[in-house]
Amino acid sequence: MAEIIKSKYTVRVKCFLIPNVQRASIAAILISLLASTAWGQDHADHRIAALTKQLTQGDSFVRWRAAKALLKIGSYTKADIHALIEALKIEEGDISDRARDELVKIGPDAVPALIRALKYQDSIDHSGNAFQALRVIGAPAIPALIEALKDRNEDVRLGALEVLQEPNFFENTTQIRTSLVPILVEALKDPNPAIRRAAVANISCSGDEATRGYLALIEALKDQDPTVRSAADFRLCCILVTPGHPMGEAAIAHLGEALKNEDRNVRSFAVQALSRMAATAKPWLGALVEASKDPEEQVRSSVARALGSIEPGADAVVATLLNLLKDTSKNVRSSSASALKTAPSTAAVAALIVALQDPEAAVRRSAADALARREAGDAVPRLIQLMGDREAEVRNAARDALAAIGPGKAAAALAGALRHQDGNIRVGATSILHNFGLYPKALGALVEALKDQDVTVRRTALLSILNLAKGTDLKTAIPALIEVLDNTDQRVRYGAALTLSGVKSGEQRYPEFGELPKSVIPILPKQVIPILIDALKDQDPAVRSEAAWALAGIGAPAKAAAPALIELVEDRNLEVWRYAAYALKNVGGKSPAVIHALIKLLKHPDRRIREVATEALVNIGEPAVPSLATLLIGQDSALRVKSYYVLLSIGDVFALAATLKSRDKGLRSLVFEAIEDIRVDPARSMQAPDLLFDPSRKYLFQTVRIPCIHEGDGRAIFVSELDTGTSFPILASSGGLGASRFIEAGGRSYLVIDESGGEANCSAFSFWLYDVKANEFVIHAEGGIGEAERGGFPLSYCEGDKATTVTTKNLLNRERPLRLLPRPIHGLTLRKNTKALDTCNQTVIIRNAGTRVLITGKREDGSYEVYYKGAISTVPKGSLKTTK
User: Fold this and answer.
1) Per-residue pLDDT for 585 more than 50?
2) Sheet holding 737-745, edge to edge
3) Please, where are the H alpha helices in 188-284?
4) CB atoms inside a 10 Å sphere around CB 488
5) Distance between CA 547 and CA 549 in Å, rounded?
6) Nearest 5 degrees, angle CA 130-CA 135-CA 136?
7) Do residues 575 and 560 make contact, with C-beta atoms less than 8 angstroms apart?
8) Would you call 759 exposed, middle or buried from its count of C-beta atoms within 10 A (0-12, 13-18, 19+)?
9) Which residue in 225, 222, 170, 173 sits closest to 197, CA to CA?
10) DSSP string, 785-841
11) Is the peptide bond before 695 cis (omega within 30 degrees of 0)?
């Protein structure tokens, strides 16, 4: 290697006429540098190899730490692709996203591995980010994606197809999609219907392969899988309804043949295509009427739907549909009933009323649905009877039809139906009446129905009363709801309590029935909270979950429910878990029991529940930090990772620093890591504080805002001793402070603090130099200091428009040209209860003689401005005794 390096650089050395001795020296230096570089690369390679091995371990915490370390390296080669692919599997934090971005930077070399990562058996983030990376890489990935269509793994084939069909994936979409047609036609033979469906969705019917693509879609109409046939139908219909499409005329010309094709799927497609062409298909009405006699019910059914969408008012169309309403096929009769919903003929209404008694449920349902869309008062008696149908879907359609017909023609009959002997009819009547507002007879009848022997009638009547509570005359419904609180039915009682609790639940749905009112007149929560707590123990999981949600809406006043909610953490029902987490977030407070329950939910397999628990712990904040920090060194690997990210989201650096008193080196290391992550990514912190470690990593400095500073941007600087967890303020000002950087001198570190909005430059109004080890300020001077040369000394001292070079020695000796200002001093309160006025114009009392405060300034009248407990306050003359 030395010979190669020597010959490589000899020419350059000779060109500069350097003597032989110097050439030898330079060659030696070059060899040393190259060897050093090679060693550095080898070191990185070995480190990545070790991390790659860790990334394949079974322990999730080990994998996560390895992925974090890998992504700090920051520069990757082709050899590192496997490690980054493994990092894609890490779902916690932003690891997977960052690994994806690095793979995108590597580019085409990463494509084969990314395609293999499309396998869905891995994590959601893994396959999803592989998909996104391929989209970003774009055109260079096309050859490998095409080759992947031949892969033995069907997930890979399907993933490749889905990437290829992404919009805006290619720079020249038309040309590339045209070139893919032969490959996609071959994919139509794949045994996996999902792949055939994806191939159909990608086939282009334009360019040189237009005819081939079109014929392939026609062939796909015969596929044994209905979803593939539907996809082909959709693609072909897009051709028919797209003006100017190159295959448009061929497709329309094909319709005539398709209507007579021996394959029923093709004939059905032709009819459906005409249906989607809407008014432009009117010239084909005669052919469709003729097709209504087709021997296949699938075709006749398609004809009925097409006639209803093209021109339902035409006499020939109505006559054909009425004839099809008598067809032997239930599907044809159902389609015909649906098609008649907009036909203006009175004969259509009469025929639909008759169809309400059809022996097939699908036909009865379609007839009821069609009657809901027109004036059909004559159908009310039949529809009421139909609410007692043996099929639920028919009962629902009848209810919808009666609701649509309206109170003018249906309300009186429905109020009477509340006394019908058929329980299903009573349920239907109670569920509809609320749609008619406070109809004079409705509320009284519904309140009476709350005593019905049928539990479903009682509960449906309650729901109608709840919905009536959305009306303008709320006072009429509220007394009825209060009366319901004494009902013997648990769910009825609970539902009334839920409404009266004042919960706004636009996203909330009552079990089995419709949407709850979005706002009601609340009564005192103490009247309903006991009922809701009782409902948390109900045997019905729907009642338990809804009661938890109601308590979540009440919030802090329902704190008494916390023990019962904690018990729900052991519930077996997913929705109960989910709503219990929401309730604990809003109701539970910050007790250790609540924190423990929420930590249990961090392990839940459902991601939504984990997210709610995380959000709740973040809201709890500082009290949750010790428990979460303990998890960092626990036995549960998954919880170790989750607790880390919850701590980052909480972002309470002082609380984190307090955990550094632990003697466990692993915990200390992880807490340092968390604090550093917060520092470099303040978006993770709720208050996004400015953070700065001293070079020894023994102290943490934080800049926080002082509230109610109207004429400035007040800040205070705190220091945390990381070994002890002790935190205290060292400086405060009504102006903008910023702890910007450290100066090293004589083995000591000095913190530079600027008063200028926190920027480390020569525009500062003044600056301080703080001796970290001695915990004292050594200088306070006008102006600011900055680096005269980037990355080092000497320093530039600025005062106004003047700039002077100074040394560290100048600063520490407080020499000219510095214009010195008084250094901060501390004080002791002399009175037991010293009254002070803060900048929010609030009176505060500084209690206990000996309380330490920061003096930020002295006024002409002898009073002091001091910083105390997050605010700057004014204390009277004589109240302080200054001390060092």
Assistant:
1) yes
2) 737-745, 748-755, 766-771, 776-782
3) 193-202, 210-220, 226-241, 248-258, 264-277
4) 9
5) 5
6) 100
7) no
8) middle
9) 225
10) EEEEETTEEEEEEEETTEEEEE-HHHHHTT-TT--B-PPPEEEEE-SSEEEEEETTS
11) no
Pair 276, 240: CB distance under 8 Å:
yes
Q: 659 with 674: CB under 8 angstroms?
A: no
What CA–CA distance (Å, rounded) separates 495 from 484?
Answer: 9
Q: Is the Cβ–Cβ distance between 640 and 61 less than 8 Å?
A: yes
Measured distance CA(232)–CA(204) in Å, rounded: 12
**CA separation, residue 132 to residues 114, 166, 180, 288, 839 (Å):** 10, 10, 21, 46, 52
* Domain boundaries defined on the chain: 58-153, 728-822
Nearest to 776 by CA among 695, 719, 692: 719
Q: Which two tokens stand for residue 769?
A: 């130099």
- Distances from the Cα of 841 to the Cα of 457, 593, 874, angstroms: 60, 39, 10
Cα–chain center distance at 395: 38
- Strand order through the sheet with 690-693: 690-693, 699-705, 715-721, 726-733
Residues in CB range of 694: below 8 A, 6 or more apart: 700, 701, 742, 749, 751, 772
5 vs 147, more confident: 147
Q: Residue 799: is its pLDDT beyond 90?
A: no
For 745, the 3-state DSSP assignment is strand
- In sequence order, the 6+-apart residues with CB closer than 8 A to the CB of 661 are 723, 724, 725
What percent of the chain stands above pLDDT 70? 76
Q: What is the pLDDT of residue 362?
A: 92
- Say whether 590 sits in a helix, a strand or coil: coil
Q: Which residue has the higher pLDDT, 278 or 172?
A: 278
- Judge contact between 481 and 469, C-beta under 8 A: yes
Quote the pLDDT of residue 176. Answer: 65
- Both structure tokens of 70: 């890998």
**Residue type present at position 259:** L
CA-based angle 435:436:437, to the nearest 5?
95
Residue 775: name the closest of 851, 721, 704, 853 by CA: 721
- CB 90 within 8 Å of CB 129: no
Q: Is the pLDDT of residue 511 over 60?
A: no
Indicate whether 333 pLDDT > 90.
yes
Q: Residue 461 is inside which H or E element, if any?
A: helix 455-468
Dihedrals phi, psi of 41, to nearest 5 degrees: -65, -45
Q: Are 762 and 787 in contact (CB under 8 A)?
A: no
What burial class does residue 807 get, using C-beta atoms within 10 Å of its C-beta: 0-12 exposed, 13-18 middle, 19+ buried?
middle
